[in-house]
Fold each of these.
Amino acid sequence: MPVVVDESNGMEKLVLKSEQDLMFTSKQAIFKPPKAIRGGVPVCFPQFGQLGPLGQHGFARNTKFDLLQETADSATLVLKAVGDEDEKYPYPFELTVRVQLGQQGNAPTFTQEVAANNTGSEEMSFTAALHTYFKISAIGNVAVSGLDGVTYTDSLQGGQRMQQSGDVIFDQEVDRIYLAVPDSGVQISDSGSGAVFEVHKAGFPDAVVWNPWVAKAQAMADFGDEEHKEMLCIEPAVAGSGPYKLAPGETWSGSQTLVYKAA
């Protein structure tokens, strides 16, 4: 499971390669800064979505990180923001991201850890998410369990609060922020492949569930018209529960571990 520096598409990036492709990347993804890559796990920071004054999902996901360390199956990167990246967010910080491939019995695992340190002299607040794109057999084959009874805000209904009943299934566009989600227990079950993804998180109170469905897929230039059928996003997040406030010198951390169990 090597870490590879990939300079294809004219952009340097790190790719963690395993024996099979378990994460989705659009065939029409635009690999040209400052465009964010449509796939993998974009790091949304210091803002998730439009929960603040910045552009969609903040600026970390389309800013170059420096490579601090790499091994055969891990990499650690850092973004050192000085406070002039966006005039609407004049707060310096260091954002460190570590990714690690591993094994739990016969099941491959992917762990991603993020840490934000306030290097400035003023309090900073942020929202954030790990915008994880899962590759699936077909959207009609999947169900997400572990969210029964959890309150969510529906972005397609003006942020209306609702309560999940049973598994989440997909027969139309879904764009929800689930609030106060348990750190373990969320699963994607794919009846087409027989596989299960387990999603474990820490430090992120919320979780976003998203599939753009037909109309929105067709409206995105960096996404195929039919690709909504082969992907699903579940994103550990600091979002609907409110922003996190970080005092000068303070560090916040969060993580996710994904476990893939084949049929």
Amino acid sequence: MAFNGTWKIDRSENYEKFMEAMGVNVMKRKLGAHDNLKITIQQDGNKFTVKESSTFRTLDIEFTLGVNFEYSLADGTELTGSWNMEGSKLVGTFTRKDNGKALTAHREIVGDELVQTYLYEGVEAKRFFKRG
């Protein structure tokens, strides 16, 4: 339940390069780097409700650990996959619908931050969130 609460983006590492690897055009990359993302997470056992609010959209996501679901990134990229707990980390394994390539994501609490790590085609990015 450590993930519960509202988290606001504080900083990112290599996020623009990650978006470039994902095929996001330069204009959307520039906007995405300054999206003011806020994530609200509520965990109830194996069920999660996540609200993502940014400059561009607000999205409510519900998922159960280990159960596949569909998700659409802010740039419109469609994914299918699932989240699982590995120790104290939330680990997401997703497949792009357009090209079948894998995208992985990790969420973990490090100190007083939520650290979200993305990996696609060998390019890793991290986004750091503070409780808001």
Amino acid sequence: MHGGDALQWLANALKKCFCKTQHATAQPPAFHALVGRTPIIRLRALLHNAHACVYIKAEQLNPSGSVFDRYADKVTKRAPTHAKYAVVSEKIGGEAASLAMALAPAGYRVRARIAASQELPTGTKKLHDALGVQQVSENYHVDDDGMCWDADSVFQANDVVEEVRRDILDEIYEQMKQVEKEYASQVVDVWFAVDDVEGGNNTADKSTPLCGLKPTDAMAWIATNEGLLVSPRTAAMVARAASALSSGTEKHRAIVVVAHETGERYVV
């Protein structure tokens, strides 16, 4: 099955699933059962410093392929039962799809606030179509009739963000004990790709294989050499993590990059 055929098959399957589960609220959806507990994976082709390692926390393995599934999992527990629509801002990428999958069993439809200058990846657009996500202006106003719930108030709430990050950190530190027992004394830094203030720019130095590569090319290098398909934003942060550890003087230090979303949305 070619990539385009596979994506179309997934889109059709998601549409059927959405229709069948709109009113199926008696049982908790599979989405919530599958969120989290993602693996950490050491990138072995990236560095030759035996005492410094870069890992990826593979959040692209969540149900919709995004770290925002964790946010949606918590947000849906606060969703009002009387509303029919939820609106959320698509700022980093992946927020609307995550919320749509999480809220589908409750009969919700999701609207995504999109900035006028914002260009969504083709794969994200197709996923929005498959999930019935409607794209609206970034200035979209929620009416007072109570039928549309502004999920941004919860999705971006400090307590939700802190709870998600605490869950991820707890998983990482537990996993590091299991997969790298010989490096039990490592100093572990955790970098979240969603915090990338440089917007996916690659600032890796000349001592790494990712030097000078555009984020999409760094994404391709990681896919080819490490077998992981991550977003350009995640790939750029991996490049900077490798640069930070490439001097050879770092001892027993690891950087775990928490992936943003799957790279599949950027290659279709």
